[in-house]
Fold:
Amino acid sequence: MAFWVYVSALLWPDCHLDHNFSCGVTLTNFCLLKTLDEVLCRTRKSRRFAAIGGGLLLLAGCNSLPESGPTERQINQAAHDPKRSTLDYRIIQVNPDLIDILASQVPPLFSSLDAGHSLHNPPRNDTIGPGDILQVSIYEVGSALFSPNGMSMSAGANTSMASNLPPLNVDGNGNIEVPFGGQLYVSGMTTNQLAEAITLRLKWKSQSPQVLVRIVSDITNSVIVYGGVREPNRIPLTPNREHILDVIALAGGEDRTVQSDEDYIVRLTRDEKVAELPLKTIENDPAQNIVMQPGDRVQLIYQPRSFSVFGASERVTQEQFTTPDLTMAEAISRSGGPIDSRADPNAIYLFRFESADVLKRLGVPVDKGATVGPVIYQLDMMNPSNYFLAQRFMMRDHDIIYIANASSNKFYKFFGLISTLVSPGITAAWMVK
Structure:
């Protein structure tokens, strides 16, 4: 009852009120407006209703205002709340030790795949294997066993007769069938070794046979080059020992009409092992331009690297790297940086799935068998020294930068909303006066 009396006195101080309350706390005689003061009394009521309504909204409505993302406090709370954090991640402050750990991380290099082949034991590219097609030419003196017309030479003649056998296919077991020579196992032989083997088989059937063997279709000594090249193809290898950039060039090279070679990834598959490197890295590091081996598969992938920016920045955006390397400082500046009126420069976050090796070195637990894990790196831009660290922190593909909202942002949003709602009433009151 006292509450209603207080509210009545607050809203209608100049009105004559007669309050009669029953046991049900009923206000019976309401304000009797005087003819002369009616307009002023209603104006005062409107102002006080607006004041009380604004107070109630201030107490209960701030949390319902829209936001672009969480504050620093909310991110820290979510990291320790198992109900809100479905992924077990940690928040790591950007510091010099972290920069050194990240800089020491080395991706799988092509040179590691070539470790078992030294210069003293280079792979051969002239052996025969299943699937190859061979051309065998036999030169005979005197009686021509392979002459199509059964021609024979006179005794003592030095004239030789050349006969080309039909193309011989090496079957899946590595065998070929030579007329008058029978079946020969040729897998692993060189062309010279096979020529000697055929000559030995024909020695007692043909007069002074001489044999030449040439690989017409070389399946065994070849690599497959495909993906973002102009001419995807099977590239035969030669004893010259082609390197990875050689076979890419023989396949027409990368399609530069799409993008620069910073956005191309070379994926090499060898003996069920896979390694990836940027094409630019192979071009700049001769040690990664390794010698090709028969059976290698080289895929050129056009993969434009990008990062995303959310939160209290000039714009929410997804940007491509467009350069070989990109630092965190450069990435933040591309999005316009933190907004003074909204952002909390103490809380600049970078979300990333980091390798398990780095997470272990940072003391972050990793699930058994996992190769990567989630982590959040925090940068405090109120500390001037961290601007130097941001210049050394290298961005990676699919990184997410989040600029947290300031805690006071809700109040300013609410104040702006109230101003928008109250301004028409204040304007109307001044017009009445």
Notes: The mean pLDDT is 78. The domain at 133-217 is CATH 3.30.1950.10 (wza like fold). Residues 239 and 297 are 19 Å apart (CA to CA). The first strand starts at residue 16 and ends at 18.
